[in-house]
């Protein structure tokens, strides 16, 4: 657990909460507590304009700033000073009132916001019902294993194992990073984490279709979800691709073939003979 600024012995409690924007005081900032080593995820009940993000500090102070129409992930590179406030604003895409969300990022001893859901009060009752239904679906989506992994909140009952693999085909700019892939096995899920690296001097890369097959039979393995921890993989940078499946009891003893495709592009990656790396003790049995 990350220690709070000014008190290295104090552990932070990770919170999940919601913010309701006020139509009477739309410019009043809402406090969001952030900390080094923890990704804070904000989920919006209405689409925002990613390009409208305004941050009252250099982006170099943040390890991660990932934004989509429905979510914003923030992780500071260094602890914020005591009483320091970093203003942050975003505009909503539909223009309805309140038209923007105003936040103030702060560090708080003993506490950090892991997930914050942002609601607007300006919705009519009928629209509110519709938005709450959509929000519920997104909350279920936010429980995907990739989001738990990216925010370092795996919980109990998940076992991580290293994977062995080999790359086939002509070498291209997209590579498996040297940290190596891992498998995560739980009671009702199987997830494969593949760290990707894009060689410098090439155009950025976005993930497209992912295909997974059983090596021995050619059977295609249904995928529950696929997520990359950055919106776009930039040259010289690493990104973690997580492919999630339903629980697959046969996986510990089988080998898979994985094809990664680029979104609207030809650059991909083929991994063969993907399987759990067994320890010497396991090999003897």
Automatic annotation (TrEMBL):
Classification via InterPro entries: Mxa_paralog_2268
Descriptive protein name: DUF2381 family protein
Originating species: Pyxidicoccus fallax
Higher taxonomy: Bacteria, Pseudomonadati, Myxococcota, Myxococcia, Myxococcales
